[in-house]
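Q: Sequence in, structure out?
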Amino acid sequence: FRNTYHSLKSTILQYQRESFEQAPMYVAVMTYLGFGIVTLFGYLRDFLRAVGLEKCHLAQERDEQKDFVPLYQDFENFYTRNLYMRVRDNWNRPVCSLPGPVFDLMERVSDDYNWTFRFTGRTIHNAINMGSYNYLGFAENNADFLKTVADITHQYGVGVCSTRQEIGNLSIHEELEELVASFLGVESTMTFGMGFATNSMNIPALVGKGCLILSDELNHTSLILGARLSGATIRVFKHNNMHSLEKMLREAVCSGQPRTHRPWKKILIMVEGIYSMEGSVVQLPEIVALKKKYKAYLYLDEAHSIGAVGASGRGVTELFDVNPADVDVMMGTFTKSFGAAGGYIAGKKELVDYLRSHSHSAVYASAMSPPVTEQIIRAMKCILGKDGGREGIRRIRQLAENTRYFRARLKEMGFIIYGNDDSPVVPILLYMPGKVAAFAREMLERKIGVVVVGFPATPISEARARFCLSAAHTRAMLDQVLHHLNEVGDALCLKFSQRKYSPRPDLYEETDFELDS
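A: Exactly. Output:
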């Protein structure tokens, strides 16, 4: 009973730590008004281009193709040339160093309002990197840490030049899969050379016509693409909303397939551990309960949560004390917490054996690069303590400490931030299109690299800056970033929160106490 109580209490506390504060009404009005004004000027500039008063820089149909269906006249192209182009300097900035906690950027300027760029020859040195997914700081160039990676490169080279089903299956690939299975607590795993393809190429092997996919509305593009390629019927439930999910499950079980009302061959629930744009954490215990109740399958994408949450970095299953065997398909990537590339599928041995012969990514894609494989092995052994030290656990705890500290300080300052207090993905809501560009430029002037995100990656009224915390960030770095954020937030009027937060940190949690039996 005591264990059940603590598990339930931990789950409740996790949900209490989620924050999705709504902006005041005037912010929403000003945001839509800003987009409306920019759109009107876009149509005016399109008219000026059509009559020859302004030069058009984007691709156009040739005169002999004027009667064809236009390729370049949809709304997305209108958005690109009239809205995105005005703020394009805030993306695709060329990095010329290791993307660790600090990095160097090549300075560039534009003489034609961001249609083209030219390099000035100057380098912006030691900008604080708040955008990379380097959660545990394994994107590093310490020669002592990388010795085994260098040795593997000398032994195997940098490329395999074959699929694993032909002659690209190396002993270190099998060692990695055994290590990942041990780390996750599952029967078997299979690794892939690309994280995006791990989703998009494996989902079609698991479901097809006559199957139903229930997908969270904020799922990543790789999950959406995989679902579409599968040919299965797709229905979308509201983000982390268990009432919406259960309603769809009940309807699917009761009504079956459209027209024929035959039972669905499979019902697959697709969710993420941490949602990369919201910083929210999946309500895993409730979803597991629903999938058991309605005899569905669960596909869990832990790209951003594996290594980043949980006492030993084992992701949301550890965070919520959920048995990994209750998750039918566990997916994750090595591109974030492990400082490498690629992804994995984990679960029962029958599942993995099936994918080895049916997954397009397994059959046709080149095997994972040997030095990348060794980098993942090195990082995972460090986390597990198999290298003889406690550096891995220290990094996990440092990331958790940095995350809590950074989020608490932002709330005290008055910013609206989304997500769970345990999530190292920290979105700051900026809302208005003009403030997005001004924020990114002002932060770079202060030698802080940030990622700003807007439509279509987010809802049109919820543009934001997304900060990613790392165990490699020192307290001094975070304090410097917070100091400049406070100044920029005041200068650009970005502190929209109407909630009041105490500057006194939590001294304890209720779960620290033993239940009196």
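The longest helix spans residues 25-50.
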